[in-house]
User: Which sequence fits this backbone?
């Protein structure tokens, strides 16, 4: 089975080549009689530039996520893996199958958080965990607001859908951090 990251990398290369090809054609379409065709090719070139950058971002995000898993979970994997963000983030072998993304209901968050220790002492920190978590909750809320505004104002359908999904993911983050704040505020 082909790895998803390999498909992303190949898509990025194809988008790069296609963008170059569109640019070459646009240079040739410099006469007034080509105005309609030039406008269409320009639109395709712009979409291709967006797609190329999105594939670059996906590739970088994947590499960063694998490094984080390796660094903080000690997961040294030679096999192909899929990183599935959510509650909790899962490191799954490829071929597991599709998993949908959604904000979990409150009961799932409560169930997930009940296994966390009731008291956490941070080493070498004068800040209390609850203060840090409250700040994180504010940051997650701000990111959610920004993605919401961006999703309403985005003109490109790919960008609009991407930021809508980012907003949903931030909603999930905010609820999880707020759940931690509530858990540790009770103690």
Assistant:
């Amino acid at each position: 089975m082909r790895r998803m990251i390999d498909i992303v990398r190949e898509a990025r290369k194809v988008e790069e080549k296609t963008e170059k090809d569109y640019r070459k054609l646009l240079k040739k379409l410099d006469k007034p009689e080509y105005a309609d065709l030039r406008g269409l090719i320009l639109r395709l070139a712009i979409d291709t530039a967006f797609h190329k950058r999105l594939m670059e971002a996906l590739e970088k995000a994947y590499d960063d996520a694998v490094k984080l898993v390796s660094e903080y979970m000690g997961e040294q994997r030679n096999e192909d893996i899929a990183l599935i963000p959510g509650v909790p983030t899962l490191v799954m072998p490829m071929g597991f199958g599709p998993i949908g993304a959604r904000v979990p209901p409150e009961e799932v968050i409560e169930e997930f958080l009940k296994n966390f220790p009731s008291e956490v002492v941070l080493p070498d920190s004068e800040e209390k965990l609850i203060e840090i978590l409250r700040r994180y909750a504010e940051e997650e809320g701000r990111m959610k607001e920004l993605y919401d505004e961006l999703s309403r104002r985005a003109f490109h359908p790919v960008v609009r859908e991407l930021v809508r999904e980012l907003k949903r993911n931030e909603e999930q983050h905010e609820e999880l951090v707020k759940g931690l704040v509530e858990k540790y505020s009770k103690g």
